Amino acid sequence: MARFTLPRDIYFGNGTLDELKTLKGKKAMVVVGGGSMKRFGFLDKVCDNLKEAGMEVQLFEGVEPDPSVETVMKGAKAMQDFQPDWIVAMGGGSPIDAAKAMWVFYEYPDTKFEDLITPFSFPTLRQKAKFLAIPSTSGTATEVTAFSVITDYEKGIKYPLADFNITPDVAIVDPELAQTMPAKLTAHTGMDALTHAIEAYVSTVASPFTDPLAIKAIQMVMQYLPSSYNGCKKSREQMHYAQCLAGMAFSNALLGIVHSMAHKTGAAFSTGHIPHGCANAIYLPYVIKYNAKDMRAAKRYEDIAHSLGLDGVEALCARIDDFNQRMGIPKTLKDFGIKEDEFKEKLSDISKNAIGDACTGSNPRIPTQEEMEKLFTAIYYGTEVDF
Ligand code: FE
């Protein structure tokens, strides 16, 4: 049996924050990250609109990037004290991801984090509250997905949580919030969205329900990302929708090894963090060439290329290379600044970890340890992928 799950309502367009005025409920807990939503006045607007809807509002502020288990538990405790019937999460991926996990511990305080690691094993939510998400960046699409990533800093582990119970009830996709993104963040999040759509389309669990969403998202990113990067308002708006469509696809079709590799290398090197979307952008063309050795996957990449008016898989990879170059994204891990010694030293471990990542299962090819090491090596030096 396959399942296709999305939020009940997705509001989109400039000014859709006003939809909050019509929300039915008594108490809303608003979960946000750093100061940017406050600085640009969006937080006040959200709170005012909820109050206008007749709700009592309480804030949970300061969710950090890559939110921790501690933050989740603190938020859950605040919810247990306040007893909201709506959880309203706004910002980049992190506050929304954190709020999804808080929701589980609010409704089931006796749950242990370890209980949630098995995908699609969550207790039934919506016993106490419903969930509304408002994204401020154009990439993760966590406002429509069944996923959340929480970090246990004590153990040094990232928990990717996955269950349709945490797919939000309502998403408000208001492009005004995304207009404030700096250019670099626009590039990285945009390439993350492109990777979501491409990986969803070639995934082994892609379906007729997810394919149209993935293809449309790919076409829109290809059309609007360069101008969005250069600050065009209209293109920013279209990118905000495109990333949401990509999210609707990958929440149901899952991802592939570009994400496996990005997850396990993001914090692996002493030279600094590799931003998630940047890692995806670097790895994507190499992984396409590796996956395209599989006949079914090759056909799927050709579909994508044809939908863009491109002639085959090579042309698709060349287009991605061109996007990366125009947005200042390096072509290799070496160019990113990873030291050769450290890369060689960690190659075996990052390869093993990437194979074990939750996203590997739906990739068209399941790499062996040797293949994954060759793939990383090709990405490090920028050499050909012919295996
Ligand atoms: Fe991603």
Describe the fold and architecture.
This protein has 387 residues and is of the alpha/beta class. The chain is built from 14 helices and 8 strands. Helix 4 links the parallel strand 4 and strand 5 (130-135). The mean pLDDT is 96. Bound molecules: fe (iii) ion. Fe (iii) ion (FE) is lined by residues 192, 196, 259, 276. Fe (iii) ion binds at residues 192, 196, 259, 276.
Determine and state the CATH class of the largest domain.
Mainly Alpha
Q: Main β-sheet: number of strands, strand sense, barrel status?
A: 6 strands, parallel
Number of domains: 2
How confident is the prediction overall: mean pLDDT?
96
CATH topology of the largest domain: Dehydroquinate synthase-like, alpha domain
N-to-C series of helices and strands:
EEHHEHEHEEEEHHHHHHHHHH
Associated small molecules: fe (iii) ion
What's the total count of β strands?
8
How many DSSP H or I helices?
A: 14
Query: What fraction strand?
Result: 5-15%
Distance between the amino and carboxyl termini = 34 Å
CATH architecture of the largest domain: Up-down Bundle
| Spatial order of strands in the largest sheet | 1-8-5-4-2-3
